[in-house]
């Protein structure tokens, strides 16, 4: 007869994969987990939330969507938007996690797939750390379970020798597990998820046991559009997922908002003050990225060639953050064209031959002629030669 291990897994995982961080260490973390960085917002939402919650959820689906999209609670608490994009996408994603289907977030690079998955797990389970990073070398043990070999050799297979994977822990604790870059994982390893997602069970034949998922368990996977084909998802696995495609920001204004908000957060973490003139530079970086990405100028008049890089929102964020650091350490603290020019060049010119020509043509035909962009043109020319 098969015994279930859920009580074992809940009480004492043989080798905890996430040792609890002392409070002081969390404060000092270079990049705190979402549930720590936004602990106040999560607590306020959970307190104000009187809607029905699915089993083991920290808050209702409505509150999770509000956490992601932002809003003001009846007690006046302001919830900052984490994701800027269509409300419906977030609603579908959250609802999926309350059903027996898993969630697959798909999209081109830098469309916030990882970001959204982390925040969903933080809001729903209060824990975004049950994470498996998908690579070409991800072994089955990372998804199922492994063994503590010292114990295995001395005592043979036993519960104490079992090393629980993040997915196994999520099953036993009724939480959300995350699998990053699912399509990078070799197909036979990916298939380990099929039984987990359809039977909600993880057999451990060596011990004659199984871990049964308790209510509240679900899984969020992310996959990159561009990597499709590296290891395609088998149709058997794909059927276990609801796919939600995250789009590029719809308008320049949305993208400016995303970049400004993230740069502000990152800058605070790095002790860089947001400069008052930063807004103009952010707008220009976003304009350049959007125009080159779409192959068309903002006014729709001039067709452009697109460079080989993705020019994602995530890259725009890092160009501006690096610019702020330059301004802070080597300038007067005010973000100027000269601080972002080198970063833009690095993002645009990936292929030294073809991309450089595309960039130069863009500089001479579009940037040079644009009203109020003279300083930007000069700064870009300086780093381009
Ligand atoms: N629509 C958006 N709303 C809020 N933030 C966004 C949005 N798009 C991008 N970002 C920001 O972009 C950054 C990068 O996002 P993330 O790493 O999640 O992208 P990704 O889709 O996982 O990319 P990759 O495919 O390269 O893994 C995050 O800091 C996130 O804040
Ligand atoms: Mg990602």
Tell me briefly what this model is.
Residues 1-31 are annotated as: Disordered. This protein is of the alpha/beta class. The protein has 19 helices and twelve strands.
Order the strands across the largest sheet as they lie in space: 5-8-11-4-12
Number of strands: 12
Major β-sheet annotation: 5 strands, parallel
How far the N terminus sits from the C terminus, by CA atoms, comes to 74 Å
CATH topology of the largest domain: Rossmann fold
What's the alpha carbon Rg, rounded to whole Å? 24 Å
Rough shape?
Answer: globular
How many domain regions?
A: 2
Q: Output mean pLDDT.
A: 89
- What is the percent of helical residues? 40-55%
- Identify low-pLDDT runs: 6-19
The quaternary state of the protein chains shown equals single chain
What would you call the structural class?
alpha/beta
At the fourth CATH level, what is the homologous superfamily of the largest domain? P-loop containing nucleotide triphosphate hydrolases
- The CATH architecture name of the largest domain reads 3-Layer(aba) Sandwich
In the CATH scheme, the class of the largest domain would be Alpha Beta
Instruction: Quote the beta fraction.
Output: 5-15%
Task: Specify the number of helices.
Answer: 19
Pfam family, one: AAA_5
Biased composition (Low complexity): 1-27
Protein name: AAA family ATPase
Region (Disordered): 1-31
């Amino acid at each position: 007869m098969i015994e279930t291990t859920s009580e074992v897994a809940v009480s004492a995982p043989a080798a905890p994969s996430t040792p609890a961080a002392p409070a002081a260490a969390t404060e000092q973390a270079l990049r705190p987990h979402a549930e720590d960085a936004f602990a106040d917002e999560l607590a306020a939402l959970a307190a104000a939330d009187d809607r029905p919650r699915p089993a083991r959820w920290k808050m209702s689906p409505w509150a999770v969507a509000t956490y992601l999209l932002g809003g003001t609670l009846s007690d006046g608490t302001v919830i900052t938007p984490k994701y800027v994009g269509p409300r419906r996408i977030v609603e579908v994603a959250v609802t999926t996690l309350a059903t027996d289907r898993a969630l697959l977030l798909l999209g081109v690079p830098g469309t916030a797939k990882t970001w959204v998955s982390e925040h969903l797990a933080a809001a729903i389970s209060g824990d975004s750390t049950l994470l498996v990073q998908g690579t070409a070398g991800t072994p089955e043990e990372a998804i199922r379970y492994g063994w503590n070999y010292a114990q295995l050799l001395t005592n043979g297979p036993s519960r104490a020798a079992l090393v629980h994977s993040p997915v196994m822990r999520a099953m036993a604790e009724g939480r959300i597990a995350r699998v990053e870059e699912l399509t990078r994982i070799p197909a036979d390893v990916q298939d380990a998820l099929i039984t987990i997602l359809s039977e909600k069970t993880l057999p451990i034949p060596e011990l004659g046991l199984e871990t049964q998922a308790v209510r509240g368990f679900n899984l969020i996977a992310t996959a990159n559009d561009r990597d499709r084909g590296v290891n395609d998802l088998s149709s058997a696995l794909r059927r276990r997922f609801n796919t939600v495609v995250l789009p590029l920001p719809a308008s320049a204004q949305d993208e400016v908002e995303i970049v400004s908000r993230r740069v502000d957060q990152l800058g605070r973490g790095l002790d860089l003050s947001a400069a008052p003139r930063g807004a103009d530079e952010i707008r220009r970086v976003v304009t350049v990225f959007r125009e080159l990405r779409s192959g068309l100028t903002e006014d729709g008049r001039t067709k452009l060639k697109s460079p080989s890089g993705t020019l994602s929102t995530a890259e725009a964020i890092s160009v501006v953050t690096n610019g702020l650091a330059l301004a802070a350490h080597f300038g007067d603290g005010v973000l100027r064209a000269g601080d972002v020019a080198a970063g833009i060049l690095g993002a645009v010119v990936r292929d030294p031959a073809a991309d450089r020509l595309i960039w130069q043509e863009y500089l001479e035909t579009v940037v040079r002629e644009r009203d109020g962009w003279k300083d930007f043109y000069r700064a870009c020319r300086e780093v381009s030669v």
